Amino acid sequence: MKRFHISVAVADLDASIDDYSARLGQLPQAVVAGKYAMWRTELLNFSIKLQPERRGQLCNLGIEDDAAQGFTSSTDCNGISWERFSALEQDLQVIMQFGVPVHPLPTEADLIRN
After folding, report:
1. What is the Cα 34 distance to its own chain's centre?
2. Mean pLDDT over residues 72-95, rounded?
3. How many helical (H) and strand (E) elements, i.e. helices and strands, does the chain have?
4. Which entry of 4, 43, 58, 89 is 20 to 30 Å from 67 by CA?
5. Distance from CA of residue 18 to its chain's centroid?
6. Percentage of residues in the chain with pLDDT exceeding 70?
7. CB atoms < 10 A from the CB of 95, how many?
8. Which residues touch 23 (CB under 8 Å, ≥6 apart)?
């Protein structure tokens, strides 16, 4: 499976988690308190990083690809960083950069929907 990846900088992680959870219709799959959150939908891998000085700016784009070996990064002709990785490799990168994430427990609504 492949998912398009988007990462943006935010000024307030908790407010952003609430906002994007409502927009995406689900809780994040992983949260590192005060630093990072990530959602995986059927087609999208979306993450946010606490970087108040860059709030609202694109951090990077990429592709989550189950067939990817390792973690690669390159810059496109517009200066945008693109990453390619498997879900497992992204999880390892998150741990190395931000710490061990907490995986929120689903709510009753999540259990019904899924």
Report:
1. 14
2. 93
3. 3, 7
4. 58
5. 14
6. 89
7. 13
8. none
2-104 in CATH: which number? 3.10.180.10
What is the full DSSP assignment across 35-69? TEEEEE-SSEEEEEEE-GGGTT-EEEEEEEETT--
Contact 99, 32 (CB under 8 A): yes
pLDDT tens per residue across span 35-59? 999 999 999 999 999 999 999 999 9
Query: Tokens 């899924």 sit at which residue?
Result: 114
Which amino acid type is present at position 58? L
**pTM, full prediction:** 0.84
Count how many Cα atoms sit within 13 Å of the Cα of residue 50 in the half-sphere of its side chain.
Answer: 14
Token pair 């999208």: residue: 44
Q: Where are the domains of the chain?
A: 2-104
Q: In what order do the strands lie in the sheet with 30-32?
A: 30-32, 36-40, 44-50, 2-10, 58-65, 81-85, 71-75
Phi and psi based region of residue 70 (left: phi greater than 0; alpha: psi -120 to 50; beta: remaining): left
Q: Give the Cα separation of 103 and 106 in Å (integer).
A: 9
